[in-house]
Amino acid sequence: MSDYFLTGATGSLGLSFVRILLESSPEARVYCLVRNPERSPLASEALGRLFPDERARLDAQSRIQLVKGDVTEPGLGIEQPVWDHLVGRIGRVVHMAASVDFLSSLDEARALNVTGTRNVIDFARACLKRDAPDFRVCHVSTAYVCGKGRGLLREDALDPNAEFWNHYERTKAESEKLLRDSVSELPITIVRPSQIIGDAQSGEVHKYFGFYEFVGLAVRGRSNVLVADREARPDMIPVDYVARGMLHLMQRPDAVGRTYHLAAGLQASLPVASVVDLVLELMSDMPELKARVGLPRVLRADELDAQLSPAERKAFEFSPQKLLLRSYAPYLDYERDFDVAATQSLLAAAGVALPDMAETIRRTTRYALAQRHRQALPAG
Questions:
Q1: CATH topology for 3-193?
Q2: How many C-beta atoms surround the C-beta of residue 88 within 10 A?
Q3: Where are the domains of the chain?
Q4: Which of 22, 278, 320, 379 gives 221 a disulfide partner, CB atoms 3.0 to 4.6 angstroms apart?
Q5: Model pTM greater than 0.90?
């Protein structure tokens, strides 16, 4: 079967996956569930950004079909004739849609992450009712279903009742539980990326969130304090590594019923202080940004009162960075030791090797700085 059905195809990972899928599978047709086909970045008139080469763009136009729907609705909100057509031909279901708002309410997070997954499972069951011996489901979870767990974090471990930092982590764990309960009837593979950054080869960044939001503040000269553990090694992973890893794993019969960490691992991850130095080094190499460069003070939360003056503390409390840290502080303050050795070895043998993470962060940051500078407001 060469026809794919994707949810979340317009997200950062989704756009990368679509491009790599079309490049590596010349016969594949790709059906993408979207709420608004006319305004989608995968609409025919918008594909030039994803496929600058005209031949590749025309090929993508002929093989991508947008399906109007919504993962939170019964039947994925797909009209019945379209549903009937899809379940008769889809051989691969890739579920990437998720709410990544760390500050959303539990009900809001469950509507997309849990209810959406349940609806995708129903769609996959309908596809499997026909004779489809090579049918596969790939679900994109997150390595952070570990919640507040410590020690070596194994790929087969899952506790939906654990302590979590936010509702995103909790509902992604609940979604995994739904899938594990369905694995006896559906050929499911689960992948768990860590913090996804840009493309390791091109440096391209599709969506500016997470790490790149802090880069944006640096460009604007509004990042004089960073609350983090200088020595902590946040796990970041390039989007193309995740996309290629997914594509390989979902073709393997022995991956059915398995869960894989698509993460860099502690040994390949950089300390926060090194990442900050790298960003500042790149900024200092850009004449238009050099005047804004200043070493931010990297402090742990318990050091703020002792290290900041009252005026600095007040400025920080009302800063854009303080708002960002409401979401991201747990991913800067301490390390997760994801078990990645076996998966990285398996993927490397298939030609999907983890790139050098220092160079990857450098390349994607350079791209982000250039793009963000064009949008930057005057400092202050």
A1: Rossmann fold (3.40.50)
A2: 13
A3: 3-193, 211-233+269-335+356-375
A4: 379
A5: yes
